[in-house]
UniProtKB/TrEMBL annotation:
Composition-biased stretches (Acidic residues): 43-62
Region Disordered, annotated ranges: 1-62
WD repeats mapped onto the chain: 259-301, 393-435
GO CC, one annotated term: nucleus
Domain of life: Eukaryota
UniProt keyword Lyase present: no
Keywords: Phosphoprotein, Repeat, WD repeat
An example Gene Ontology biological process: rRNA processing
SMART domains from the UniProt entry: WD40 (SM00320)
Source organism of the structure: Lolium multiflorum (Italian ryegrass)
Name listed for the protein in its UniProt record: Anaphase-promoting complex subunit 4 WD40 domain-containing protein
Length: 484
């Protein structure tokens, strides 16, 4: 399934990506030791793990770090960092290596005539393709050329899960002459756990003045992975925000060694494009955390909600909005670290929250009951609940899971729902009307997102694991109303 989508601004990606460094011999040897150690200690660890089924604070001098071992092994072997030691041993068992030399049919070791199994000289072997050094160089050049990202290309990143393999798929979207998009996967990034949300950002923690091409990923395991999208074949994230314990047991609740970490799944992310070293995250642990990307540390924790916090969005560089399963939206003033805040009541659990890029006072929320509600921040008051919605729209027959504003056309929005529909709306004068709708054959729709660089392109993803990019301008009603 596809759970989240982020567009990369045109020109932010390197023309030619960097290839990750292959593992050193030391890393390979360390991986071998880690695998052996994991096999020896697996049973004891599982038995010990049964005693712990809750959140705990641990010291740094704790048990053997199995997560780090698995990641080291994955890095050395070129596999996803989600591959645990047990997965490797299971794979070897499936190959039945003990019976590798046993064949049902006897091989004829010596043959008559010209040897089928052995040739004295490679020149005599008809199956060897002769190639000189120049050919090798040409192949390398063609591989680099294949990875080139043209300045006109648009890059789209989606969080993907298939058969328990979690990844980021980095795709190139080319606009054809007829306006229809052509899309192909450029490269894939392995993730350690199920991805729930993504957020593109340009902050480079190694050099804050130099912009980069990074994406933050909120995962089921309560950590935030940050990946450098300009590096291909990488198996370790650029950075990790939050920390699991030195011991994580499969099937059990994770334990934590740092107090300033989320204690449950990360459900929402919002990068502050003005204060570029700040990333906000929301979690099923009912908290919101603000991270200093330059240090990787949590700077502020907000605990205003009574339920899971599904979504966060920056209304301005100092004002943060959050939507929760406690059926509320809260606006926090970060100039006093969120001590001042205002609350709006909504009809149901919040699924998605977006700020109107064309109106500094307006924001929309999509809800679990299929409704979309609009609010004006000027109705905020010191009361426990602020003003009423400016409109309420019955958008979907099931949960309205996603919502997105067209970046160049005011009052033009898209919604996606678990009723499998994607719908386009005109919300002019706070009187919403449906302009077009599409069953994109994606299953339940989890995410929709308009592209900033080509504002009529809408990316959609859902439970079937497929990605669709829809040129909404191809719809006559859209062209008539918004195409001028």
């Amino acid at each position: 399934m596809i759970t989240a989508i982020s567009w990369v601004p045109r020109g932010a990606a390197k023309t030619v990506p960097i290839e990750a460094e292959p593992p050193t011999q030391e890393e390979i040897e360390e991986a071998k030791k880690s695998i052996a150690l994991g096999r020896a200690g697996g049973d004891a660890d599982d038995a010990e793990g049964d005693e712990d089924d809750g959140d705990m604070e641990l010291d740094d001098e704790d048990e053997v770090d199995e997560v780090a071992q698995a990641r080291a092994a994955a890095k050395a072997l070129g596999k996803s960092s989600s591959a645990a030691v047990g997965d490797i041993s299971d794979g070897l068992a499936e190959l039945n290596m003990d019976a590798y030399d046993e064949e049902e049919d006897e091989l004829e070791v010596f043959s008559t005539g010209l040897g089928d199994l052995y040739y004295k000289d490679n020149e005599d072997d008809p199956y060897i393709i002769k190639k000189n050094d120049d050919d090798d160089e040409d192949d390398d050049d063609s591989e680099i050329e294949d990875m080139t990202i043209k300045p006109t290309d648009i890059v789209l990143v989606c969080a993907h899960n298939e058969d328990e393999f979690n990844s980021l798929q980095v795709s190139i979207v080319e606009e054809l002459e007829d306006g229809d998009p052509n899309m192909f996967v450029h490269h894939e990034v392995p993730l350690s756990d199920f991805p729930l949300c993504t957020e593109w950002m340009d902050f480079n923690r190694e050099n804050g003045d130099e912009k980069g091409n990074f994406i933050a990923v909120g995962t089921m395991s309560a950590i935030i992975e940050i990946w450098n999208l300009d590096i291909v074949d990488e198996v370790e994230p650029h950075a990790v925000l939050g920390a699991l314990s030195k011991k994580q047991i499969k099937g059990k609740k994770p334990r934590y060694k740092k107090r300033n970490s989320h204690k449950n799944s990360v459900l929402g992310l919002a990068w502050n494009a003005v204060v570029r070293n700040v990333l906000a995250s929301s979690s099923a642990d009912k908290t919101i955390r603000l991270w200093d990307l330059s240090t990787g540390q949590c700077a502020v924790t907000l605990q205003h909600h009574d339920g899971k916090v599904q979504s966060v969005a920056w209304r301005s560089p100092e004002v943060l909005l959050s939507g929760s399963f406690d059926k509320s939206v809260i606006m926090s003033d970060m100039r006093d670290n969120g001590q001042t805040y205002h609350k709006w009541a909504v009809e149901a659990d919040v699924e998605s929250l977006v700020c109107d890029p064309h109106n500094e006072h307006s924001f929309l929320v999509s809800l679990d009951n299929g409704m979309v509600q609009a609010f004006d921040t000027r109705t905020a008051s010191s009361n426990s609940n602020s003003g009423q919605p400016t409109f309420t729209l019955h958008a979907h027959n099931k949960a309205a899971s996603a919502i997105s504003f067209c970046p160049s056309k005011p009052n033009f929005i898209a919604t996606g729902g678990t009723d499998k529909m994607v719908k386009l709306w005109d919300i002019s004068n706070n009187q919403p009307s449906c302009v077009a709708s599409l069953n994109a054959k994606l299953g339940a729709v989890f995410t929709v997102s308009f592209c900033n660089d080509s504002p009529f392109l809408l990316a959609c993803g859902g439970s079937k694991g497929k990605l669709k990019v829809w040129n909404t301008l191809s719809e006559p009603a859209v062209a008539n109303k918004f195409g001028k």
